[in-house]
Amino acid sequence: MTLSRRAVLAGTGALVLAFSLLPARAQTETGKGEGPRRRGLPGSLDDTPRLDAWIRVAPDGAVTVLTGKAELGQGLKTALLQIAAEELKLPLARLSLVTADTGRTADEGYTAASHSVQDSGTAIRHAAAQVRALLIGEAARRLDVPAERLRVRDGAVLGPGGARIGYGDLVSDALLTAEAQPTSPLTPAAEFAVIGRPVPRIDIPAKVTGGTAYLQDLRPPGLLHARVVRPPSYGAVLTQVDAAAVERLPGVIAVVRDGTFLGVVAEGEWTAIQAMRRLAASARWRETAILPDAADLPDALRALPSRDSTILERGAPGAAGTIVEGTFTRPYLAHGSIGPSCAIAEWTDGGATVWTHSQGVFPLRRALAGLLHLPEDKVRCIHAEGAGCYGQNGADDVAADAALLARAVPGRPVRVQWMREQEHAWEPFGPGMVASVRAAVTPDGRVADWTHEVWSQSHMMRPGPPGALLAAREIAEPFPPAPPVALAQPEGGGDRNAIPLYAFPTAKIVHHFLPDMPLRGSSMRSLGGYLNVLAIESTVDDLARAAGWDPVAFRLRHLTDARASAVVEAAAQRFGWGRGAPRAGRGFAFARYKNLEAYCAVAVEITVDRETGQVGIERVVAAVDTGEVVNPDGVANQIEGGLLQATSWTLFERVAFDRTRVASVDWSAYPILRFSAVPRSVEVHIVAQPDQPFLGVAEAAQGPAGAALANAIRDATGRRLRDLPLTAGKIKAALGA
Amino acid sequence: MTSMILNGERRAVRAAAETPLLYVLREEFGLNAAKFGCGLGQCGACTVVIDGEAVFSCITPVMLAENRQVTTLEGLGTAEAPGPLQRAFIDAQAAQCGYCIPGMMMRAHALLARDPDASDAAIRAELEPHLCRCGTHMRILRAIRLAADAMRPRSTAEAGR
């Protein structure tokens, strides 16, 4: 066995054995759905088949819908209530919803990977339809009429002669404890009254009026405030701190130190912050320079040991034609939640209750139970909404911080919010990546050869394992670092969307999975899909240009999936692609997310200021096919958001670091999109697919939006830029070259 | 002891004079809308209005609000009876996570009070200090435009009375 210097990075404390010696855990991004379905039931019913795990009807007729997924600002609550209201034939306002809570809801793993409507929405839809059928059946028995003669409306079953029995009168303790059946009497799309409508989101009124909308706003009685002092760099060890001086400050309840883990609990929030600063000022650390050279990151990544797998090999490579090749790189990217991560924990009766905006309350419970040396049933994790996370931000880590600090002051809830610099320095970044593409096109405009290689560390370092939590690596008896997870195809991790959807006669796709982690990383919206789509769509564009083809027509002739073609055509048509005089500064791109979820095509028109290199986005037009649409405005909102967020990644973003520390610890050092760079107009068109299965949509725009912008920059400047971000400085330099 | 006029009511402040206004609003007065985002005046999530000017409450010591009119989003209406700007944000569904939205709304409130006919370019320029990570920018712009349009006829009518 050898000790790897790099392995230090994976942990945040002591030296550990190199990851490449550990077996990778096989896992899906939601932590569910691995292997064959157990019961043959739709969506998450397969894991949790009892109907009353999803739908409860009280004797007074009140109906509660339960989901193991969480609201992340994506509109999930409203969409799930629409689905339940539709199948229960109840006004949406009469339903209440319970979201992810280890004490109350089904375990649906992580709210991730654009899976929520297909997992939970499908389960709720089928459960609600089956509950409706059971209630009708019960009414038929009581009224002694055939079920076919009964109707449901407004929470009651209606029969001949004005008979009317409310859901609450029909329900009994045993009725809904039944397990779901494989098939359900689903409402056909043509009869939808709630699904498919742009129902206003139920969470927005509180958010725009100062209601209690976020975990950050919860104030349980007796609430204390706490802050942690994080080390200045990965692997830093706390050698000295003057805790006593801080403990004497008025309003300070306790200073907690356990190894390198350091925090302070106080009566008030501002007191906690001041105490944190005093602690930090007195703390001494032993740091190690263990980061790669940021200026040389792509080469550093490719030099790491890798586990290589060929995820697609079709035909014989090496066919003749005009060659287009290039290496695309992205830096580490920050999730950059506007609200730093927050949690509240309370220690009572030898157990912990934790309010968290984690994407996975059940896996977090496992991790916290391990960290706290408690049985799982002594830990309850309840989801409450935080600021948008777009993947794994500091949510899980701050929950561990809160639990450790609450343990020091039993009986009082403790709220911890990270400071901005802590979120920016310590969140698990979207990994830096490299993708190399080499392709050939024949004189008649056919792609003849295609090779794509991608290098990336894990995109899935979420808890379960306690060692995935920062605090668990900092305490005096640290947990071992969580082993790196390589997400498998077809969804993939770093290799997500590395397989092009186009019908190329030969193709070879290689995934170089990097078990080491130069910087802490985990899931960020679309995982490797963003860079892989950008690499594919940039190369396809260049192949079209090399062969003298219009880029949209070139894509269409290589697509065999009719829904893909329809989305490409819709975006091109709405944009007015090819109409009028050709204008410099147009770009087009397409992908089907994971090759399994929503289809999305994007067309962009830009101007480039040749003096400064600055990009002005005139307009963006997107078309999306996400199967059955629950809430069209919700879909549009997600796609609009994805377009703008990916624009920000593409033009501006890069985690900066020296050989020891992450340097981009605020918004001036990590600039993102501001209003001056926002497009003049953005349009989203939905290609309707009634009665088709739900397809995940929340991440579908990321790749196509970035790629369309890169293609527009190529079109405007005549230069193909491949190293993200495509900053004004790089564009200006390319124009001058 | 400081006192300020918070959403129309005079309120005494217990906190020390140098305490950032944000923590006074959230802790002492139990208000939710102004959010901690960066503590550095870089993101705008904490924005409130003092005497008609949008300010970052995270870097404004409470003593600077002494005897001044402090307006937070709570002062513009309630979920049951939303004010015109709040109505417009609901109508435009101008939020995803929504964490940045109260700050954006307060700066828009100050702008529209000062310039009811603010151009789209002026609205964009005014919002430059504010960050939104969800990419809701287009809807935020639309909502402010909707609010401006909804507020203008009434103010014109009132002015004409």
UniProtKB/TrEMBL annotation, chain A:
Which keywords has UniProt assigned to this entry?
A: Signal
Q: Where is the signal peptide?
A: 1-26
| Keyword Chloroplast carried by entry | no
List the GO molecular function terms. oxidoreductase activity
Q: Which residue ranges does the record assign to the Aldehyde oxidase/xanthine dehydrogenase a/b hammerhead domain?
A: 209-289
- SMART domains membership: Ald_Xan_dh_C (SM01008)
Q: Classify the source by domain of life.
A: Bacteria
The cross-references to PANTHER family, in alphabetical order and at most eight, read:
ALDEHYDE DEHYDROGENASE, BLL3820 PROTEIN
Q: What is this protein called?
A: Aldehyde dehydrogenase
- Origin species, per record, is Methylobacterium variabile
Classification of source organism: Bacteria, Pseudomonadati, Pseudomonadota, Alphaproteobacteria, Hyphomicrobiales
Automatic annotation (TrEMBL), chain B:
Q: Which keywords appear in this protein's UniProt record, sorted alphabetically? A: 2Fe-2S, Iron, Iron-sulfur, Metal-binding, Oxidoreductase
Keyword set includes Iron: yes
- An example Gene Ontology molecular-function term: oxidoreductase activity
PROSITE patterns, per database record? 2FE2S_FER_1 (PS00197), 2FE2S_FER_2 (PS51085)
Please indicate if the UniProt record lists Oxidoreductase as a keyword: yes
Q: Matching InterPro entries, A to Z?
A: 2Fe-2S-bd, 2Fe-2S-bd_dom_sf, 2Fe-2S_ferredoxin-like_sf, 2Fe-2S_ferredoxin-type, 2Fe2S_fd_BS, Beta-grasp_dom_sf, Diverse_Oxidoreductases
Q: Which residues form the 2Fe-2S ferredoxin-type domain?
A: 1-76
PANTHER family noted in UniProt: BLR6046 PROTEIN, OXIDOREDUCTASE WITH IRON-SULFUR SUBUNIT
Write the protein's name. (2Fe-2S)-binding protein
Q: Which organism is it from?
A: Methylobacterium variabile
Upper classification of the organism: Bacteria, Pseudomonadati, Pseudomonadota, Alphaproteobacteria, Hyphomicrobiales
